[in-house]
C-alpha cells in the first residue's frame, strides 16, 4: 500500500508549463523615465509600464516580503472586465496566466500582509481554489460581496437573474500575523432607540426615562440635533444573551430581575460598564456613533456585504474616463483602512486607470502600480499628476482633505538581457552597457546592486562577504592578481567578464569567474517580450448606463 499522500488541488491543461514557472521568468531591470516622473524627487512611489509578470519578477529582489497590501482587479474571463484585455480566454489559459502572478504577489507580501482580489461569480470559485493552493486555505480571510448596480435599464429585461454584484476574496500571507483594523460605515438612525434619560447628569440610580418622541416635540428638536448634542441620553432596553455572558454578568441580571425598579451597574475594567433594569440592559446611542470622515455619525461595523459603494459616475472619477471595470476610490480606501497604516506599501499589478495608486497617494501610503497597456500614459500618468497637484478633488479627496503633494516615479521595463544575433548566437542586447549591464547581472545572479565608491571591482553585494564585479574588458591574469592583492581573507568575489585569459580562474580560490552571457543562458527564459493576458484591439462598444454619469467628477 502506497504511503504517498495526495492533496486536494485544482488542475488544468498546461498548469505545469515551465514557461509560467516563476523561476524561469527573467528578472529585468527597471528604467526610470525622468520625463514622466513627477513631483517629489525622493519619493518611493512607483508607476511601472510593462507586462505585469515581468514587472513583478523585477520587483522581487528589492521588495520581497515588504508589501503590506495588494489589491488586484484582474480580467474576469467574462467579456465585462478591463476593456483592453480579451476576457473570453479559455479557463485553463486564464488559470495558467493567473497562477504565476499570484505566486509572485505572495512572495512580495510581508508576513503581516494581505491580498484583495476583485472577481465575479463565473471565475470566483476557480480563483478561490487556486488561491487556497497558493496562499494556503488556512490563510483565507473573507469573501466580500459588493453591490455595483441595480436591475435598471436594459438589465431589467434580462431573461435570467440580474448580476449586480462583484465578489472580492481576501487572503493573508500569514493569518496569525495579519492584524485586522475594524472599519465603520454610516447608517440611518436606529429607531429602536426610543427612550430618553431626562436627568442624565444625576447618579445612575436616579435616572428617569421618558419617550424620546415626547422630548423632541416638547423642545421642538429634530432627531439629528439630538443625536449630535446629547447621544448619551438616548437609549433603548435590550434583553441580554444570558447564556452568552459570564457568570458575574448573569448574577447582575438575576439581581436586576429581583429588584426590577432599581438600576444596577456592573463595572468592568477595560470594558464599558453594563447598566441593567428589570433584567434588561440599557444601551446608549453614543456607543453607536463613530467618527467617519471628520464627523460623528450613526455607524455600524463593516461586514462582508458592501452596499454603500457608489458606482454612479465613477467612469470619469479622477478626471479620466475608463468605461467598465473601474472601481471607486472609496472601495480602495476601505481596504487600506482595514489592512494598512500610513507609510505602508500598497501594490496593484492590474492598475487600469490608477484608482489604487490615487487612493493610496491621498491616504499617505507608498504604492507600486503596474499597467501593461497604453493606459499607463493616457490615464494613470494624467490622473496621478492631478493628484500630486491637488487638482483631483473627486473620489476620496474631500474625505481625506486632500490638497496635493508628494510625487511618483515612472518606470519602463528594460528589454531582455539576451537576444539572438543574425548568426543565431545568443548575445547581450546592445541596450546593456556600463551601469545597465552591471545592474542586470546583479539581478540575474542574486546580488544587490551597490557599487563601492572606493573599490572599482565591487559592483554589488551578495550573502556574507561576497561581492560581484562585471566588466566588458578582456580579463587578464594580471588583473585578477591585482584584485586578489586587495581581497580580504574572508572575502569572495564573482567576476563576470565577456572574455578572460586562460588561467584567470586558477589564480585564487576566493575568485569565481563566469563568462557572460554564456554563464547565465540557463538562468531564466530570455527573449520573452510579454506574458500578456491577450489585449483587445478595440474599446468596448457596450456601456452600462448604471456606471456612466453625464456629470464630470
Q: Count every helix, treating DSSP H or I runs of 4 or more residues as helices.
A: 12
- Domain unit count: 3
Query: Based on DSSP secondary structure assignment, what is the total number of beta strands?
Result: 27
Which parts are unreliable, with pLDDT below 50 for 5 consecutive residues or more?
Answer: 79-85, 534-553
Biggest sheet, open or closed, and with what strands and sense? 11 strands, mixed
Question: Can you describe what's shown?
Answer:
The chain has 553 residues and is α/β, with parallel strands linked by helices. The chain folds into three domains: 20-183 and 304-413, Rossmann fold (3-Layer(aba) Sandwich); 186-301, no CATH class; 421-520, Trna Endonuclease, Chain: A, domain 1 (3-Layer(aba) Sandwich), CATH 3.40.1350. The protein has helices at residues 52-63, 91-108, 124-135, 212-218, 223-229, 247-258, 329-339, 355-362, 375-389, 397-400, 435-444, 477-484, and strands at residues 30-32, 38-39, 46-49, 67-72, 109-119, 140-147, 165-172, 184-186, 195-197, 209-211, 234-238, 263-266, 274-277, 280-284, 289-292, 295-301, 305-306, 345-348, 366-371, 407-413, 418-420, 426-428, 448-449, 460-461, 466-475, 492-500, 511-513. Strands 1, 2, 3, 4, 5, 6, 7, 17, 18, 19 and 20 form an eleven-stranded mixed β-sheet that branches. Strands 10-9-11-14-13-12 form a six-stranded antiparallel β-sheet. Helix 8 links the parallel strand 18 (345-348) and strand 19. Helix 7 crosses helix 8 (355-362) and helix 8 runs parallel beside helix 9. The longest helix is centred in the N-terminal third of the chain and has 18 residues, at 91-108. The relative contact order is 0.15.
Amino acid at each position: 500500500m502506497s504511503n504517498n499522500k495526495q492533496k486536494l488541488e485544482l488542475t488544468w491543461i498546461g498548469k505545469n508549463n515551465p514557461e509560467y514557472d516563476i523561476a524561469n521568468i527573467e528578472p529585468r531591470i527597471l528604467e526610470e523615465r525622468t520625463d514622466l516622473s513627477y513631483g517629489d524627487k525622493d519619493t518611493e512611489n512607483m508607476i511601472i509600464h510593462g507586462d505585469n509578470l515581468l514587472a513583478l519578477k523585477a520587483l522581487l529582489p528589492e521588495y520581497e516580503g515588504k508589501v503590506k497590501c495588494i489589491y488586484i482587479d484582474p480580467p474576469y474571463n467574462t467579456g465585462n472586465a478591463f476593456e483592453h484585455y480579451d476576457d473570453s480566454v479559455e479557463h485553463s489559459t486564464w488559470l495558467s496566466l493567473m497562477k504565476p502572478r499570484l505566486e509572485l504577489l505572495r512572495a512580495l507580501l510581508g508576513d503581516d500582509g494581505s491580498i484583495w482580489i476583485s472577481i465575479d461569480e463565473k471565475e470566483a470559485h476557480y480563483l478561490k481554489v487556486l488561491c487556497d493552493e497558493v496562499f494556503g486555505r488556512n490563510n483565507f480571510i473573507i469573501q466580500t460581496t459588493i453591490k455595483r448596480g441595480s436591475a435598471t435599464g436594459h438589465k431589467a429585461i434580462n431573461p435570467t437573474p440580474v448580476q449586480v454584484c462583484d465578489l472580492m476574496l481576501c487572503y493573508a500571507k500569514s493569518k496569525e500575523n495579519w492584524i485586522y483594523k475594524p472599519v465603520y460605515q454610516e447608517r440611518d438612525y436606529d429607531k429602536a432607540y426610543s427612550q430618553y434619560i431626562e436627568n442624565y447628569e444625576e447618579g445612575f440610580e436616579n435616572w428617569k426615562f421618558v419617550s424620546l418622541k415626547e422630548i423632541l416635540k416638547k423642545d421642538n428638536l429634530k432627531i439629528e440635533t439630538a443625536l449630535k448634542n446629547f447621544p448619551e441620553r438616548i437609549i433603548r432596553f435590550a434583553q441580554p444573551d444570558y447564556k452568552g455572558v459570564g457568570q458575574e454578568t448573569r448574577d447582575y441580571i438575576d439581581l436586576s430581575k429581583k429588584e426590577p425598579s432599581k438600576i444596577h451597574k456592573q463595572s468592568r475594567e477595560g470594558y464599558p460598564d453594563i447598566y441593567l433594569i428589570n433584567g434588561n440592559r440599557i444601551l446608549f446611542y453614543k456607543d453607536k456613533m463613530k467618527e467617519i470622515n471628520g464627523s460623528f455619525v450613526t455607524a455600524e461595523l463593516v461586514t462582508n456585504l458592501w452596499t454603500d459603494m457608489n458606482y454612479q459616475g465613477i467612469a470619469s472619477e479622477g478626471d479620466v474616463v475608463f468605461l467598465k471595470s473601474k472601481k471607486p476610490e472609496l472601495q480602495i480606501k476601505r481596504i487600506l483602512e482595514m489592512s494598512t497604516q500610513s507609510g505602508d506599501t500598497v501594490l496593484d499589478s492590474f492598475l487600469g486607470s490608477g484608482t489604487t495608486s490615487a487612493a493610496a497617494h491621498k491616504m499617505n501610503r507608498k504604492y507600486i502600480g503596474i499597467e501593461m497597456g497604453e493606459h499607463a500614459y493616457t490615464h494613470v500618468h494624467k490622473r496621478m499628476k492631478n493628484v500630486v497637484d491637488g487638482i483631483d478633488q473627486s473620489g476620496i479627496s474631500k474625505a481625506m482633505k486632500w490638497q496635493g503633494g508628494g510625487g511618483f516615479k515612472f518606470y519602463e521595463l528594460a528589454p531582455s538581457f539576451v537576444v539572438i544575433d543574425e548568426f543565431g548566437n545568443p548575445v547581450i542586447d546592445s541596450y546593456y552597457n556600463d551601469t545597465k549591464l552591471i545592474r542586470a547581472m546583479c539581478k540575474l545572479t542574486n546580488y544587490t546592486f551597490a557599487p563601492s565608491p572606493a573599490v572599482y571591482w565591487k559592483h554589488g553585494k551578495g550573502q556574507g562577504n561576497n561581492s560581484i564585479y562585471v566588466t566588458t574588458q578582456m580579463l587578464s591574469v594580471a588583473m585578477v592578481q591585482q584584485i586578489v592583492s586587495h581581497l580580504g581573507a574572508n572575502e569572495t568575489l564573482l567576476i563576470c567578464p565577456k572574455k578572460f585569459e586562460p588561467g584567470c580562474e586558477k589564480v585564487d580560490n576566493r575568485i569565481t569567474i563566469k563568462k557572460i552571457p554564456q554563464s547565465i543562458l540557463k538562468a531564466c527564459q530570455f527573449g520573452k517580450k510579454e506574458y500578456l493576458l491577450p489585449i483587445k484591439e478595440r474599446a468596448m462598444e457596450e456601456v452600462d448606463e448604471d456606471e456612466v454619469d453625464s456629470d464630470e467628477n
